[in-house]
Amino acid sequence: MSDQVTVTINGKEIKVPEGTLIIQAAKMAGIDIPHLCYCECLPSTGSCRVCLVEVEGGKGLVASCAQKVKNGMVVDTDTEKVREARRFVLELILSNHPGDCMSCDKNGACDLQKYAYELGIEKTSFSMKDPGYDVDRSNPFIERNYNLCILCGRCVRICKQQGADIIDFVKRGMVTKVATPMDRPLQESGCDFCGSCLAVCPVGALVEVDRRFCGREWEMKETKTVCSYCGCGCELVFSTVDGQIMRATGEVSCDYICSKGRFGWDFVESSERITKPLIKKDGVLTESTYEEAIKVVAERLIDIKKKHGANSIGGFMGAGNTNEVAYLFQKFLRAGIGTNNIDSSARFLGFPALIDLYEALRDGAVVSMKDVEEADVLLLVNADLTASYPRVGASVKKAILNGAKVVVIDSKKTEISELADLHIEPQVDSEEFVLSGILKELLEENLHDEKFTKKCKNFDEFKKSLDGLKVETIEKETKTSKDFLKEAAKLYGEGKKTIILFGAETVSSQSMGLIADIALLTGRTKASVLPCLLSSNLRGTIYMGALAGFYPGARRANEIGNDFKKIWERDLPDEMGLSAMEMVENMGSSVLGMYIVGADPVAQFPNSSKVAKAFSSLDFLVVQDVFLTETAKMADVVLPGATLAESNGTVVNLEYQTKEVKAALEPLAKPDWETIADLSERMDYTMEYSSEKEIAKEIKSLVPIPKKIEKNTYDFIVVKPKKSGEEPDGKYPYALIVGETSFGFYDGQRTRNSKLSILELNKGNYAGFNPEDAESLSLKEGDAVLISSRRGKITTSVKMLGSLPKGLLFMPSCHEERGVLASDNVDSKLKSPQHRLIAVSVSKGGASK
Amino acid sequence: MSANGCSVMITLEFLKGFTKDKMCGKCLPCMLGTERMVDVLERITKGEGEEEDVVLLEEISSHIIDTARCKLGKDAAVFIKDSLSSYKGEYEEHIKEKHCAQKSCEDILNYWINPEKCTSCGACKVVCSEDAIVGDKMIPYLSDNKPYYIKSKKCTNCGKCLAVCEVDAIEIV
């Protein structure tokens, strides 16, 4: 702990750590010093001069946001001289602030207004000046009125720290203005619309377009909940007026919230939402009542069960529901219906390979954002952080500003790779060789932790298998010089606090093993590997047992004994249960009824034309979702789903923290758990819960919160690197990968129904080409192009992406037809498709959409 | 400084130079305050100054000395403050009498025809595009011709008359 110093502020003596700023020390003493440019999370600039204080024995006034405390310092924050100086500065600012508080949305939350009131300034004594700038209303997210700007520079600093770093002060003196390069609109300047600038603006210069003239600051009701997009599970505060969301912010103004979190919530209010149950009558889905719909579903499911047995029914759910819904859904299927045929999107997003990784590393694979920010070396494997898991991306950016070294292994360029110290661009799909190469170099350079490796039983076996791999093979497969690998090993090996980050859905299970090995070889078993998860409740969904082969508590189905039998009061099936792809395989033959919650298998599963055929051969399909998805269109009954913004419950984020979800809105539909419970009731398996809290209680009694288990012995995972994707060949000469984009998300169901979609070309329905490839195919941006793989073909439009290497094509995961091309080749052990790399051919033309 | 010109004008020029050159615009009191002082000084040199303006300038400059972040801003304010205390009379002359003794502030200069020097040749009236000069040309043996004089309200201080007068009868006061 650093030394404590004693300071006296307004006669109050307080002990604070050395190096504390006066303004912070005052806050600790409960004294709020007025400030405009200072912000807790940002470096001080001392430019507004509002936070001036008097220091005894000092010369003149001192800016408290820039001066650190000294032992014995005596500070006065509220003398006449200080007030006079503040009044002067505020009056000057007000004379340059031609806004009308009456119609300003910041009214009531504006710092300038607050301090002017506190100092009793009725009117500025200087003549008013209007800068006369045009108000930028060209995007539907942020309204920028720089006439109201007081040039505090908070937005500039936060954009540098966690945004896209696109705004800065331009010009000088009185004509200084905050602007993008060439003063272009935000959407043309590479802005990632994280809206951090909005959150820190102390006045009305930057305001959410959504809330303009829709509600006053003091009318807002705040609800703290969790973002429903990626696995970062950021805490969001929804401000609502009369049941309408006005804005979403972080808990503290400078908390990072990405574009999807801050602006992507509007799908909740979309007119495309399903609000009433639909029943297919004569081939057309017609509106009905809950009563009737539940009756139909129960009757049909009972009928199928009677005729063909419980195992002819299957369930599949997305990974974005609350723990309570996931738990209840699998309980309904396992105990209510009596089948273990339950699976979730988690299967496609990294699990169950991740379970192995957790078992291998335990605490090593639990990393918080704070750990990332404090790390000194970060190794990124196939993780486009700023697009897929923006919160992690923001933390990495912060770490870089703090001086962290970053090594990126990715075939394409990403926002972070541009900032990285070393970017290894291997041949696509050869990450396993790169990682093995780094392991070899770590050993060769003697950077491994010998004391630790001695404790591992299979170190020799592991070493032998590495020795069997030739450097030449690695260089040949990756098309990367071993010097790069050596440099990466050196950077990583010599770091003090290192973290390996990877995208759980973008690396193979083999790579995960190798990543664990790298951490183990250097003896880093505490917070050293962070799997980045894509879906908001991926961990929770697994932990609640919504995955074939696993029961709640992530307990393997063959190891549970009688634990669940007692509480669920039913006999449980003996079979392990079918995974998602196995269910699809058996549809029409042994699987005849499906219950889908919050997922769109028909559009999402690889080889979607085959999947669609399989679903159409079902006897009965019931879908519970927010929107009428491709799967829902084929359903016999559609039940309305609730969004996270309308649900109560808990989710588990990628930091392994359980977070509470609270409904910010009156739900348009029944909560998902209620629908499931009603259905179960009808099927003679009573689920009596008065609220989701009771479900949570049952979960708690069944699967205690995992304790931190001290692990003493670790084992290396012996991996023989290989390439798992489809290799491009003569007929299909291009490789295609599917990945996340900044403004699209996963299946695109939500982002497509949000105004975020305008930021993506064609709402994300495009294929990215390297400009050289495009030229050789004589393609221009926006051209229609026909892409075919061994499974099928699609027509889409062309987008130039300089970030791609030659020969690699990119398709956003929110592309409506992304499933058509993907391979349904299933990994036999994990039962999840290995569809990272798809071999495709490209031809110009095709009917444009 | 007054040896070479009007203190008000010198201060204004200094401050204008400061805002265009040294001022960074990073701390608000210096940036906004100097701009306000430029406004006030410009007002004074145009003869539109009011009696409170000197007090206002004094206030702004001492506040900037207190609040500005760097020495450049503080020094600029010190310069103004010194000028105000050393040459108070000149400022007051500009404000109350609308007169610039150093004849630097063009807007408050008056052109005047010295009747003792004027030969009533009429050349000035011919060149005056604003019809600001009135009077009759001297006709020998007549003595009731009106003497030439300049109507200050109409005069734009363009200086054309000054250039044509052969006997230097037109003076600036």
Which tags fit this structure?
heterodimer, A: alpha/beta, Ubiquitin-like (UB roll), Alpha-Beta Plaits, 5 domains, 6-stranded mixed beta sheet, 30% helix, B: 173 residues, mainly alpha, two-stranded antiparallel ribbon, two-stranded antiparallel sheet, 7 helices, elongated
Structure explained in plain terms:
The complex is a heterodimer of chains A (849) and B (173). Chain A is 30% helix and 18% strand. Chain A has 849 residues and is an alpha/beta fold. Chain A folds into five domains: 4-78, Ubiquitin-like (UB roll) (Roll); 104-269, Alpha-Beta Plaits (2-Layer Sandwich); 278-349 and 543-688, 3-Layer(aba) Sandwich (Rossmann fold), CATH 3.40.50; 376-532, Dimethylsulfoxide Reductase, domain 2 (3-Layer(aba) Sandwich); 734-843, Barwin-like endoglucanases, CATH 2.40.40. In chain A, α7 (290-308) packs across α26, α14 packs antiparallel against α17 and α14 crosses α18 (482-494). Chain A starts with a strand and ends in a 5-residue tail after the last strand. In chain B, 35% of the residues are buried. Chains A and B meet through α2 of A and α2 and α3 of B.
